[in-house]
Amino acid sequence: MNKHKLVENMKVSTSAVKLREAIDKAVEDGFITREEYDRIITLASEDGEIDAQEQVLLKEFHQMINDKDIKFRKV
Fold first, then answer.
1. 3-class secondary structure, 28
2. Domain extent listing, the chain
3. 30-46 burial, b for 16+ CB within 10 Å, e for fewer?
4. CA quadruple 16, 17, 22, 24: dihedral positive or negative?
């Protein structure tokens, strides 16, 4: 189990829910592909705005990558 928790017990926007689902799905095995990473970044900015909840999710997502809790899968 990862030591990071992505935004819990917080009223979240619909776009943040979609983003969280995409992140959770992409990192469930501890690895992420470049395609999954790009899809997550695109999803975050899809509506033209990255709201506060999405910012928190992206920060946690990038922290998991920096901490090597999740790693990029070699293709």
1. coil
2. 14-72
3. eebeeebbeebeebbee
4. positive
CA distance 12 to 9: 9
Which H or E run includes 10?
none
Q: What angle do CA 55, 61, 63 make, to 5 degrees?
A: 100
- What pLDDT score was predicted for residue 36? 93
| Alpha helices per DSSP H over 7-51 | 14-27, 34-44
Distance in angstroms (rounded) separating the CA atoms of residues 51 and 69? 25
Determine the Cα–Cα distance for residues 71 and 5; give it in Å rounded to an integer. Answer: 17
Residue recorded with tokens 């990071």:
4
Q: What type of residue is 32?
A: I
Query: What's the confidence (pLDDT) of residue 7?
Result: 47
Q: What is the pTM assigned to this prediction?
A: 0.79
DSSP letter (8 states) at residue 72:
E
